[in-house]
Amino acid sequence: MSTPAVEITGLVKRYGSTTAVDGLDLRMERGRLLALLGPNGAGKTTTVEICEGFLKADKGEVRVLGLDPVREGASLRPRIGVMPQGGGAYPGVRASEMLSLVAACAASPLDPAWLLDVLGLSSVRRTPFKRLSGGQQQRLSLACAIVGRPELVFLDEPTAGMDPAARRVVWDLLGALRADGVSVLLTTHLMEEAEALADDVVIVDHGRVIASGSPADLTSEETGQLRFKARSRLDTELLAAALPEGYLVRELSPGSYEIEGHVSPQVVSAVTAWCAQQGVLAEELHVGRRGLEEVFLELTGRELRS
Ligand SMILES: Nc1ncnc2c1ncn2[C@@H]1O[C@H](COP(=O)(O)OP(=O)(O)OP(=O)(O)O)[C@@H](O)[C@H]1O
């Protein structure tokens, strides 16, 4: 079996009296896309920067592609791509020059012109970095991170500040990278992004992992909702009595009902049977699971950053 893309054990990093990372464990297999989620200040960027070799850990073991990012940084750097938070470039350099410069450092780079085109940046290729919009700067930074055909890319909030069309372009590109077997570790505040892209999600808070699994694993907890429409003012107490104990039945607005609890096939059948007994047809029946955002908020007890 190949070494994992990233393996972190007992990672600790302190800044003075602040413990940014507090005994974090994480394992990411090759060829996966892992999304690191967590509230502001949870320790995501610190963790990623330690993996990239930019910061030194105070305690713990970190291996990236089997290498120590600090001691073996020189061997590791050509094999990874890095997109730091907020991009980062010489303000006066033109978009295409910057990408070509980075490409020139790689043994077998992608064609910079093609990459600019894929990321919708061809029309601004002669524009200095400082005059690009925030979203364009982000896309250029992403291009720089992947132009060298890395085996593993670290992307710190890659789509922050992008409009929905640009975000879609980036998502497509990340999907293509993953299909090519590239390992991707990204941080994000967008639950939709994690749900759409990630094979694995790791939620951190206060510098520790508080939950991990696939998006489906994390959202397939017992609680779900069944919604349906019927005539208004059905007797919700009577409906609740027809279900096993513990289900909450509410009329959200006239004629619009919600049942909260574990929605099994038996529950769906009991609801429709009960409606039939009342001589009403349950329409627009919808079974929903909790989204990643709800799970996240419940676990961290905090609002997301917008
Ligand atoms: N250079 C630094 N000096 C002092 N404290 C720092 C430094 N960098 C980060 N911290 C602190 O370490 C903690 C973790 O910060 P980090 O940037 O890793 O969190 P994050 O999860 O990436 O947050 P965000 O979602 O806001 O980017 C925070 O309390 C932060 O204030």
UniProtKB/TrEMBL annotation:
Keywords: Antibiotic resistance, ATP-binding, Cell membrane, Membrane, Nucleotide-binding, Translocase, Transport
Keyword field contains Translocase: yes
Intracellular or extracellular location(s): Cell membrane
InterPro entries hit by this protein: AAA+_ATPase, ABC_transporter-like_ATP-bd, ABC_transporter-like_CS, ABC_transporter_ATP-binding, P-loop_NTPase
Topological type in the membrane: Peripheral membrane protein
Signal peptide: none
Gene3D superfamilies linked: P-loop containing nucleotide triphosphate hydrolases
ABC transporter domain ranges (all copies): 6-231
Superkingdom of origin: Bacteria
A molecular function (GO) term: ATP hydrolysis activity
A Gene Ontology cellular-component term: plasma membrane
PROSITE patterns: ABC_TRANSPORTER_1, ABC_TRANSPORTER_2
One biological process term in Gene Ontology: response to antibiotic
Protein name (database record): ABC-2 type transport system ATP-binding protein
Species: Amycolatopsis xylanica
